[in-house]
Amino acid sequence: MVVVLLLVAAGAGVLLRELQGGAAVRASGPPASPTSVLAAADQPGPKSVSLVADVAAHPQAEQVRTLLQDYFHAINTGDYELWRSTVTADQVRDTAWGAWHQQYRSTLDGNIVVQRLEPRPGGGLVALLSFTSVQDPADAPRDLPVRCLRWRVSYPLVSEAGELRIGPAAPTAALHAAC
Structure pTM? Predict the structure, then answer.
């Protein structure tokens, strides 16, 4: 009977960790709050990029966190030049300021958590992250024109001229749902 109770408790702990996205580690401040417990007025949540414990132990964890922090800060503040410094040259070439501004003009991202880092075939890494965005519903994806979205995205991270950069995410590498 004790063994069964221990197995049930362990299973519940694993399920709870999966539902909460694992323990988050922040560069400063408290752990990220699950977006489901934030009031609508408090969305999108903290703007700092957090790392789950497994990711924080990765040798490139701080480099990845800094890159993603700059990327999301650029989006949140409308800083196209900063954004350009975080993405691959192909993305810079393919995304002029006007198109970028149109895409992110009302977007604020928060509750950003790097859930996993994996080696990428051919070099680099893949960063799996979750975050919340709020935006004018007219600027939301056409399939879900709402103010608040929860995202799960897979970004390729590649070395370009000796610097880590975010490559374009495949359309199938981004999932979203209403908050």
Answer: 0.79
